[in-house]
Design goal:
Elements (H helix, E strand, L loop, with lengths): L1 H35 L2 E10 L5 E12 L3 E3 L1 H11 L2 H21 L6 E5 L2 H5 L3 H12 L6 E6 H6 L3 H11 L3 E7 L6 H6 L4 E4 L11 H16 L3 E4 L5 H9 L4 E2 L10 H12 L1
The site of one calcium ion has 4 residues, from loops.
């Protein structure tokens, strides 16, 4: 048993060592990737559950690594945060997403919004508000066609500068979404004050709704609370028709998930919109 424990420990050490090396390598490669333009955005439709119309798209970053193929954001966003590279990367993402949304707007009477994920370091960066407003102006996108997505946990920890920047952006017409809601233990008084327009219910709350009365009651409560506070609600990670039906029934207006569509590349998103208009 002792030898077994030792082996396990060794395996554990090797695994953490490998993980550390991988992170270091990612950090080096990220610099290069930003210079060579190896990032791209995909766009996942957000659907109006009442009408089936596409209300917006969430922009999700992808990294095309020369030897490792496509790397998911979960693997590099926190490394980019640590190294500060998230600031130039985030600026690129914001500009790219805004340019894309401007092209949708040219082709539609009721253009979809674009949702952009913004991380802690980016929000705290001096000049963040300016970066956003300048990009909107440069691409000629109406401010209300941009939604800034901030996680609930970040909003909880950053009530100083972050909140005032978000207030300024909202005064200019930009909308703010509370991302991953349900994971951050927000209090009621906090929710009443938070500078936001949209609440996105985290995926883990959605999956069990068709099978669990408790889970359904919980989601029902979140939707009522949000509605009372004038927040529009988006349910994340809808994979089953039964989940969509439960959410529509409790009054959740918007949904996102593989049931409707996975994240799409730029061309497919444009085609998706054309299909919508027929
Ligand atoms: P998120 O903001 O919660 O984004 C939703 C994630 O759920 C995306 O993963 C999306 O592909 C995935 N998803 C969508 N529908 C379904 C579904 O029906 N089932 C399941 N199982 N998953 C679904 P992705 O693209 O890997 O992104 C992961 C996280 O990385 C994002 O979570 C976000 O926190 C972060 N991220 C992605 N793009 C960016 C970005 O441009 N900037 C920053 N700062 N973070 C980003
Ligand atoms: Ca998000
Ligand atoms: Ca989310």
């Amino acid at each position: 048993a002792k030898a077994n424990g030792k082996n396990q420990w060794k395996r554990y050490e090797e695994a953490t060592h490998a993980a550390l090396l991988r992170r270091m390598q990612i950090r080096v490669d990220l610099d290069e990737a930003l210079r060579t333009g190896a990032f791209l955005l995909e766009y996942q439709p957000v659907i109006d559950l009442k009408t089936g119309v596409t209300a917006g798209f969430e922009a999700l970053v992808r990294w095309h690594h020369p030897s490792r193929g496509t790397i998911a954001p979960a693997e590099f966003i926190d490394v980019a945060e640590e190294s500060g590279l998230i600031v130039p990367l985030g600026e690129w993402i914001l500009n790219r997403a805004i340019a894309e949304a401007a092209s949708w707007a040219k082709a539609s009477a009721t253009p979809p919004y674009v949702g952009v994920n913004v991380s802690a370091r980016q929000l705290r960066q001096p000049g963040f508000v300016d970066t956003v407003l300048t990009s909107l102006r440069r691409h000629g996108l109406a401010p209300d066609r941009l939604v800034i997505e901030i996680t609930e946990s970040l909003l909880l920890t950053d009530q100083g500068n972050g909140w005032s920047d978000l207030r300024t952006l909202r005064e200019a017409g930009v909308r703010v979404a509370i991302d991953d809601f349900g994971t951050g233990y927000s209090s009621l008084s906090y929710l009443r004050q938070v500078p936001a327009d949209i609440l996105k219910i985290e995926r883990s709350f959605i999956g069990n709704t068709p099978h669990s009365d408790k889970q359904r009651a919980l989601v029902d409560g979140i939707v009522r609370l949000a509605t009372t506070l004038d927040l529009a609600v988006v349910a994340e990670g809808i994979e089953q028709p039964a989940e969509r039906d439960v959410l529509a029934k409790v009054g959740c207006r918007y949904g996102q998930g593989y049931l409707f569509s996975p994240p799409l590349d730029s061309d497919s998103a444009t085609r998706w919109l054309q299909r919508d208009w027929i």
